[in-house]
Design a protein that fits this description.
- This protein is of the alpha/beta class.
- It has 3 domains: about 5-45 and about 65-220, Phosphoenolpyruvate Carboxykinase, domain 1 (3-Layer(aba) Sandwich), CATH 3.40.449; about 225-295 and about 380-545, Phosphoenolpyruvate Carboxykinase, domain 3 (Alpha-Beta Complex); about 300-375, Phosphoenolpyruvate Carboxykinase, domain 2.
- Helix content is about 30%, strand content about 20%.
- The structure holds guanosine-5'-triphosphate, sulfopyruvate and manganese (II) ion (MN).
- The site of manganese (II) ion has 3 residues, from loops.
- Its main location: cytoplasm.
């Protein structure tokens, strides 16, 4: 019988025959390999050295100006049966997709190095982890994958043991937006990405594997692959609850995962532990609870807005050994973005800074850093069995209507809350910014199959013996009449998490409303908080006519997934609508 690695070497040979690189390099994941790659990229200009006195081991990468975000309109899920991709995905027949993209790969690596990157998503010894191999011609991708995944020899050994791995093929190509595709073949556990060097399009372990392909695998194997942060909240008595939260791209996952408790809470002994900031894989344990791992080993975080005031943990994490992408520079070559003190000298495209050209840093500029550099990195973040989840939180940017926090009455109601969440779009994907769109479970760009089947899968976790987390919906982005945020957000979000934990432990009563359970007046700790007069009342109000209109919109949206919409979800929406009608 052929060795399990022979399958891999045969695939590498096939890809090399198609792409015709000058060299093939198998990545071992060592420090020496990383240093050599950095030196090579400094020589070619792919990386620019930052001020090594203030930022040792830090470099800047400037992407092509047309290649700065995920491209959802060029992202395809290629299933044999079109229905299985669902109305939530762009679809192409597998044979057509392979033909189209293989034509682009033909000879595309001539004169370049083909890198083979074996990687493991999740702790190397965890039964929840899954492996993949990315082939790429981009040294920038290799360097980022080294930070974001467990890459190299250990992953290769696991692949040799298990045999199974996700195949990802990537080439930067000509960076021509007309010749750019991100294609997924869930039935083949394969990904092909051409024409972009940007994060979610090119670091295939991240969104392509750990969400689109993994969500498909998770459905067949009985687990969940979600666009969620994982954070541990330790109370003054030393008890830690783990919370998983799904917010759409650029809506606050990294910030919540690294939250700094407000002064009063710090004094009392509250602590926050970071387990993950973007992706969460969960499955039921023997005790019926959901256990979660972070499949990633690093953070690919949004730079703008990161400051001592908002996220000093992130700022401390990125003080050394970090790759910055599309940020601006100060006169003494330090990385800079909107939200930091000081002034930029050079913008993200390398031009002398001129406010007439827009922000100095690209709004979707990013940092790539090892999770181990985070001061609040959880001692349990690499537990093979994962951490037990006490609460699941959904949320998005909703300038109106959605209260600061509400709790679902049960799992089905929670699934409805997640399935109908919406958010204003952000710079994390190309296209208009600030438009409300529905983004179920923050997975609209990432669910690798039909949303109707996905909702059914979520509902299926409610079964005998299950001890499911409580489900909440939050909104840090409510605005007042003056257009300003009503809630200070960031560290103060712990006040809302404390209430959730009190609910989980049965210590807070809450008040039942037709749309969910809200904090009773006085249950939310607001000492030391400077809120505008009336802001708290507004944040916790239930606007019945507004909700009736929302429920109508939700109904129309859910029906877009008929005939695969689970009846249970339709019934749940009707129940909430009826409760609202009774309330009038
Ligand atoms: P992705 O990496 O794209 O998935 O994003 P993310 O969900 O991790 O978002 P992140 O935490 O990086 O935050 C994105 C933006 O939202 C930043 O500009 C933050 O400053 C801002 N933000 C985060 N949390 C809050 C909050 O509680 N209130 C307000 N007003 N803004 C916030
Ligand atoms: C997101 O857009 O949700 C990100 C960045 O986390 S990317 O890796 O591009 O998906
Ligand atoms: Mn994300």
């Amino acid at each position: 019988m052929a060795s399990k690695l022979e399958t891999l070497t045969r695939w590498v040979d096939e890809v090399a025959a198609l792409t015709r690189p000058a060299r093939v390099h198998w990545c071992d994941g060592s420090d020496a390999e990383y240093r050599a790659l950095v030196q090579q990229m400094l020589a070619t200009g792919d990386l620019i050295e930052l001020n090594q006195d203030t930022h040792p081991g830090c470099y800047l990468h400037r992407s092509h100006p047309s290649d700065v975000a995920r491209v959802e309109h060029l992202t395809f899920v290629c299933t044999t049966d079109r229905e299985n991709a669902g109305p939530n995905n762009h679809w192409m027949a597998p044979a057509e997709a392979h033909a189209k993209i293989d034509a682009l790969f033909d000879g595309c690596m001539e004169g370049r190095t083909l890198y083979v990157i074996p990687y493991c998503m999740g702790p190397i010894d965890s039964p929840l982890s899954r492996c993949g191999v990315e082939i790429t011609d981009s040294p920038y991708v290799v360097a980022n994958m080294r930070i974001m995944t467990r890459m190299g020899a250990a992953a290769l050994a696991r692949i040799e043991r298990e045999g199974a791995f996700v195949r990802g093929l990537h080439s930067t190509g000509e960076l021509d937006p007309e010749r750019r595709f991100i294609m997924h073949f869930p039935e083949e556990l394969a990904i092909k990405s051409y024409g972009s060097g940007y994060g979610g399009n090119a670091l295939l372990g991240k969104k392509c594997h750990a969400l689109r392909i993994a969500s498909w695998q998770a459905r067949t194997e009985g687990w969940l692959a979600e666009h969620m942060l994982i954070v541990g909240i330790e109370n003054p008595q030393g008890r830690t609850h783990y919370v998983a939260a799904a917010f759409p791209s650029a809506c606050g996952k990294t910030n919540l995962a690294m939250l700094i408790p407000p002064e009063g809470y710090r004094r009392d002994g509250w602590k926050v532990w970071t387990v993950g900031d973007d992706i969460c894989w969960m499955r039921p344990g023997a005790d019926g609870r959901l256990y979660a791992i972070n499949p990633e080993a690093g953070f690919f975080g949004v730079a703008p807005g990161t400051s001592t005031a908002t996220n000093s943990n992130a700022l401390k994490s990125i003080a050394r050994d970090t790759i910055f992408t599309n940020v601006a520079l100060t006169a003494d070559n330090q990385p800079w973005w909107e939200g930091l003190p000081g002034t930029p000298a050079v913008d993200w495209q390398g031009r002398p800074y001129d406010p007439a050209n827009g922000p100095a840093a690209h709004p979707n500029s990013r940092f790539t850093v090892s999770a181990r550099q985070c001061p609040t990195w959880s001692p349990r973040a690499e537990d093979a069995q994962g951490v037990p989840i006490s609460a699941i939180v959904f949320g998005g940017r909703r300038p109106s209507l959605l209260p600061l926090v509400m709790e679902a009455r049960d799992w089905a109601h929670g699934v409805l809350m997640g399935a109908t969440m919406g958010s204003e779009t952000t710079a994390a994907a190309t296209g208009a910014v600030g438009v409300l769109r529905r983004d179920p479970m923050a997975m609209k760009p990432f669910c690798g199959y039909h949303y109707g089947d996905y909702f059914t899968h979520w509902l299926s976790f409610d079964r005998p013996g299950a001890k499911l987390p409580k489900v909440f919906h939050v909104n840090w982005f409510r605005k007042g009449a003056d257009g300003r945020f009503l809630w200070p957000g960031f560290g103060d979000n712990l006040r809302v998490l404390e209430w959730m934990i009190a609910r989980v432990e049965g210590r807070a009563r809450g008040v039942e409303t037709p749309v969910g359970i809200l904090p009773e007046p006085g249950e939310l700790r607001v000492d030391g908080l400077a809120l505008a007069p009336g802001a708290l009342e507004e944040l916790l109000a239930v606007d019945v006519p507004g909700w009736q209109a929302e429920l109508d919109a939700i109904g129309d949206y859910l029906e877009s997934f008929a005939p695969r919409l689970p009846a249970r979800l339709r019934a749940e929406r009707r129940r909430v609508a009826a409760a609202l009608a009774d309330d009038e």
